[in-house]
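Dear U.,

Please find below the material for section 3 of the report. The protein was modelled together with flavin-adenine dinucleotide; I have listed the sequence and SMILES used, followed by the predicted complex structure.
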Amino acid sequence: MNVRTRQGKIERLKKHSKKSVVIIGGGINGIGLFRELSLQGVDVLLVEQSDYCSAASSAPSRMIHGGLRYMENGEFALVKESLHERNLLLNNARHYVFPLPTTIPIFSWVDGVLATTLKFFGLNEKPSKRGALIIKLGLSFYDFFTRGRTTMPKHRFHSKKETFKKWSFFNKNAVCSATYYDAWISFPERLGMELVTDAEEASDSAIALNYARLLRSDGQKLVIKDTLTEEEICIEPDLVVNATGAWIDNTNRNFDKSTDFIGGTKGSHLIVRNDDLYRATGDGMVYFENAEGRVCILFPYMGNVLVGSTDLPVSSPDGVHCTPEEEHYILESLKYIFPAIEITPEQVLYRFSGVRPLPSSNTSTTGQISRNHSCQVLPADHDRTFPIFSLVGGKWTTFRAFGEQVADRTLSELGLSRTTSTENIAIGGGKGFPETVFERKQWLKKISEQCRCSEQRAEALLARYGTHALHLADYLADKSNQPLDSHQDYSTGEIRFLIEKEQVECLTDLILRRTSLAISGDLNLDIIRELNGQMADIKQWNHEQQEVEFGNALSYLEQYHGVDYKTLSERSLKFSSCVTDKVSTPDLVETFVH
Ligand SMILES: Cc1cc2nc3c(=O)[nH]c(=O)nc-3n(C[C@H](O)[C@H](O)[C@H](O)COP(=O)(O)OP(=O)(O)OC[C@H]3O[C@@H](n4cnc5c(N)ncnc54)[C@H](O)[C@@H]3O)c2cc1C
């Protein structure tokens, strides 16, 4: 039996039930730590109850950023760490992380000086308007933290005239604007999957399983359930890491521990297809305050516009989705900044939501809750043979730093020491990624020759898989491969590659996370049917299983992303009358090429 298949891994765990570390939760924080520990040669198991990066880690604003706003809360150390990590990711994940010019429309010169000062000293918790002076101060700190590193240009202010020349849709009351640079991530879910793959490839004793849920513990063993087969596996760990994000306190109850570590807040985003709105972004992010002084964002994403977000306290992380009230709130915020742009309900193509695993807090507004991360330790005791580390908070941007800090603590607990730093290790298809225009051309030529495809398709493959596009080419060498009937931009061989190599277990893994079909707004009924057919062939599902999977995918899309059957079938009709040769490469990539 191949020890790297799902069944092979499960058989190994049944034979060798002892593990040094078990990480529960395969969001970006669990995955980041898994990779850290695997690279140090630690015998580590990661279990995720659903698919990797399917909860909060699939719902970010897709910013890889220092967190300009966090300075108001006095979190300078976090901003400094985040900017450092942002710069590392720009290097280590060149295929998915790109510079993002970000523009702030400004409506007064001095507003917010008093409110921001009071907020800084913890004397005011309400959101407030920020004028040019305060923004200048914040952006100057931002530049100061990255001084000496020439990764990206410094901030710049634009006069009213310059502002309206480029951002003609801005609310006419803007007095000026400022542009600074941050970064964005095109495919966070794919980057998460690549980290898992890198970690498993780095060490034979690193095992990751999706669809494996921690059920209970007797204080010595953990009972993990394979949720695909209902089989239960017992594991005896030396140390447990609870990386279950917004579920951390629920998970600790499995160990008879009542904790109050988490005070999660829900955030929702919309994907909008509206030409004026797309143009209004001025080819970058617009970072603006809505009528109540809360920061919102929008930027071009896969030919559409990504807009967000809300920040609402929730009592349970289960079943969160974007409500009609949240959608209305986001659209009203847009209207405040772009009053002349009309967005119709059918232009909202997709919605996504997640719960930020923030620390529990008694601040009166959610914006004031710290965005920092911490590792809360429950030591071993007479009822439990292993300590539990709970990973509270954390952002996509800082996953590596957080993972590194917790790995050091874990190594010390196990009496081991660090052998490798991950600071400069490229991730997945970011390894050897072309850095210059010339190198990029060479790569495109190589990919189009080996995949026997056009340069346009080679561009799409490089954007999707980075240098791993050549792994795909190798795989396709002796296999039949043609464009999908329902979507010319993906091919049958490519989908087969994803299913076989990237731990795809359910149809939703494929349409929501290994590909960008759902979030791009292109998904339709025909695509879902065709991919389900391919899944059924490879997984040898019978007709009944295939129907169940199809139904599950449809109800998931409706419940969690507001995309119902009617919309999917209407899109099918529309797309079949104009078979698309559109290639969904990410927007805003040009700024990356040197
Ligand atoms: C709306 C929003 C916007 C954001 N924007 C940004 C941004 O722009 N930039 C940025 O850097 N960060 C951003 N973040 C923050 C970032 O996305 C999260 O902090 C991060 O993804 C949290 O990762 P996690 O691994 O801790 O949690 P999660 O991703 O939620 O992972 C926890 C996992 O644990 C699993 N689990 C739960 N119980 C069990 C069990 N019993 N057994 C096995 N598995 C279990 C769950 O299924 C889940 O997959 C945003 C977050 C949100 C919600």
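For the text of the report, you could mention the following: The pocket of flavin-adenine dinucleotide is lined by residues 24-30, 47-50, 54-57, 59-63, 213-214, 243-247, 251, 267, 309, 354-357, 391, 394-397 (CB under 6 Å).

Regards,
Y.
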